[in-house]
Amino acid sequence: MKFCRQTLTEDITQYLCEAIEEFSTEQHLDTSFSRLGLDSTGHVQLSAIIEDHTQTEIEPTIAFDYPTINSLLQFLEGKYQQVKEIA
Question: What are phi and psi of 27, to 5 degrees?
């Protein structure tokens, strides 16, 4: 398992810039994915991006449970920090 917050942030924001016309990294890190207009297909795509990055299976509902970029990254950072400490 690997986790690099900066790289994953770049991957997620690149996807959102392509998927959402008005998306701005400076303005929307704490705006919910649903409010940005991301539909359920987009939520599944986010989980796929995270899976590719971490090389672990991620539930497709993760973006509903952690509905902003910052909350999602904070959760993942904590999760992978715990794994690192245990290993």
Answer: -105, -20
